[in-house]
Amino acid sequence: MEKGALPESRVPVWPRIVTPFSIGGFVHVWAPCPDIMGDHRITVLPGDGTGREVALEAQRILDTIQANTNHGFDQTVIPCGGQHYLSTGEEWAPGSFEFCRDETDAIFLGAIGQPGALLPNGDLAGGSVILGLRSGLDLYANVRPIKLYEGVPHKIHGGFRQIWEPGMVDMTILRENTEGLYHALLRRSADRAQGRPEYEPEPMTFPGLEGEVAYDPRPISRAGSQRLIEMGFDVAATRNGAPSDGQRRVSCIDKSNVTRGCQLFRKTFESVAEKHPDTEADYGYIDAFMQWLTRSPEHYDVVVTSNMFGDISTDLGAVLQGGMGMAASGNIGDQHAFFEPVHGSAPKHAGLNKVNPIASINSIQMMMDYLGRKNGEDELIEIARLIDDSVSDHLRDGKLVTYDIGGSATCSGVGSAIADRLAHKLSERF
């Protein structure tokens, strides 16, 4: 088969039309044609709401790479999430966690969350998927690139205008992903995903408090902090420094003037920073950081922080890059990783073909970079760069964008246009 041509059974018809076959309740989307090796096993978890729509656009990018390079992707789709729970009584099919752990090289997740879909204990139905994978696969780093592309305005006071300058917002925030305030929920979700008795923290007493009391422990360990911080310095080594001065910089964001967990986090940061004298060690308290992030984003190169602080600050960072529809992420550990847009399931927009697919496309960009660096495949790193270039060119052109950044284009329309740009770049390069 000529390179650049999809096998007949794989010509995309959007929404995707396939003849799936079952593997233990999963949907195996395709078998690679004989002359294109499926050399990367990708599990797709579409999830709920608009997650299902953006998952199609993520798969479109995988298809485009396969059609124009010698890299193949053996894709398996596993239905999951709140909608799946309401219709089946299961968050995902039995064995799904083990399949993700043992039979895949990387995972793409669309979104989790359906109104009214709650487990008997009150947890979000679908938590076994997203949180179970984070904790159960030990994906200790939530990696959030915060980059403002040329042509992307900011929605302020109901209108669109340029607030921050392209090129002056380009940082990566690493959020610790398995400890902190979410630890108990993460462990409980991981236990449920693997069929184990679910973890609950031991009862505590709080002198001076009366009546009903709810609490969430916030454990922060040296080992958990150290591996995240070390990854932060590793990421900094791959970047070009902060936009303001080109200085390679890692910023430790905490509340070490108040909390013991943050004091340990900062102490650990200081010990890791000593091993990297060529990278500037920077410090800030979370409350001040929320100001500086909006006033002086150009100062930041790589940021490392704890779980809850990272959850909040990265969503503010998404505002700088044009909104949640632009925000991609990776959940990365030493052996496994999954990638997801962070905009959630957006149920009110589901089925309307209107949400922004760029966060999902850039999640695939992160996936290619991850697989390339993990396996020493420079071509995949180059493919990741070409995906980023395709998104950048598309946004700079500004003719076809979705409602959240001032346009009226469809989700599939934007996805198709970016895939076409990528196909052209790949055909020229490979």
SSE arrangement:
Layout: E1 21-23, E2 26-28, E3 40-47, H1 51-68, E4 73-77, H2 82-88, H3 96-102, E5 106-111, H4 127-136, E6 141-147, E7 154-156, E8 159-161, E9 170-176, H5 183-193, H6 222-236, E10 249-254, H7 260-273, E11 280-285, H8 286-295, E12 302-305, H9 307-320, E13 328-332, E14 337-341, H10 358-375, H11 378-397, H12 411-429
Parallel strand pairs: 3-4, 3-5, 5-14, 9-12, 10-11, 10-12
Antiparallel strand pairs: 1-2, 2-4, 6-9, 6-13, 7-8, 13-14
- CATH class descriptor name of the largest domain: Alpha Beta
* Structural category: alpha/beta
Percent in helix = 25-40%
List the domain count as a whole number.
2
Separation of the first and last Cα atoms: 16 Å
The residue ranges in which pLDDT falls below 50 over 5 or more consecutive positions are 1-24, 28-37
CATH topology of the largest domain: Isopropylmalate Dehydrogenase
The CATH fourth-level homologous superfamily of the largest domain: Isopropylmalate Dehydrogenase
Largest sheet composition: 12 strands, mixed
Report the radius of gyration as a whole number of Å.
Answer: 21 Å
Principal-axis shape equals globular
Assigned CATH architecture of the largest domain: 3-Layer(aba) Sandwich
SSE string: EEEHEHHEHEEEEHHEHEHEHEEHHH
